[in-house]
Amino acid sequence: MATTKITVTVPEELAAYIREQVETGKFDSVSAYMTQAAEYLRDVDPLDLIIASMIAEGGEPDEEARAWMDDARAKARKARLAREARKTGQAA
To answer: Phi/psi at 9 (nearest 5 deg)?
Structure first.
């Protein structure tokens, strides 16, 4: 896989945490850490994060709320697929 070098600026506390992750062997390098973090953010559905946060704060949803969440996820995925299709010139 081809790679490219970029420079990022992060708060010192975060930089220290990342270096610690490398020093303890959890990641081979700062670049490996940042790559995995970026891949995770690319692949995670933001709506899923919001829903997980709501569950963490308020507990498991009842049947009606779960149905609403499932509907919201389906609509969000459909909209994302349509947006991606428009970008690539494909039919949704």
So the answer is: -115, 125
pLDDT at 38 over 60: yes
Angle between helices 63-88 and 46-58 (to 10 degrees): 160
Tokens 């995770």: give the residue.
40
Contact residues for 33 (Cβ-Cβ < 8 A; gap 6+): 18, 21, 22, 27
pTM of the model: 0.53
Question: Identity (one letter) of the amino acid at 22?
Answer: V
Amino acid at 3: T
Average pLDDT of the residues in 16-43: 92
Number of other residues whose CB lies within 10 A of the CB of residue 65: 14
Q: 33, exposed or middle or buried, with CB in 10 Å at 0-12, 13-18, 19+?
A: middle
